[in-house]
Amino acid sequence: MTVIGIDPGSRHFGYGLIESKSMKLIYGGTINISHSLNLPERLKSIYEILTDIVKTYMPDEMAVEKIFAGKKIPSSFILGYARAIAFLVAAQMEIPVYEYSSTEIKKALTGYGRAHKIQVKSMVHNFLNINNRISYDCSDALAVAICHINSKNVEYFFQNNIKRN
User: Fold this and answer.
1) Quick check: is 60 catalytic?
2) Active site residue: 41, 52, 60, 65, which one?
3) pLDDT tens digit string along 74-84?
4) Is 124:142 a contact under the CB 8 Å cutoff?
């Protein structure tokens, strides 16, 4: 099964595809959109590039980071638009979508829900045996995919190994 992880953003949109059984990196990167484009143009670019990636690699599932509503409410709205693009592409390609909070993702990779980005990135490199440099956005997207795969593996284990009364 192939999982695509998404770290949404309107300027830097991270994505990463992992083969779940072997935990092998298939493809990953960051869609970097010029700040000179207006928001609708940036969203259109994300839509077109993400659609091409999904059509090329045909992932079975999509895992997306949930929105963290911090102090910058307008930024949260823009992040929501970028997430909506990922959801639209998934819906058009009939790919199930799963969502994970930043805390869940960090805890799944590092054991600590408030880990720093550098710790998460380091664990992504370790999990996937990556020697090349990757952006933080790509690393975050791969972390979402790893979190999802591990979550599914735990769920599968409990379904198949716990006796039911």
Assistant:
1) no
2) 65
3) 888 889 999 99
4) yes
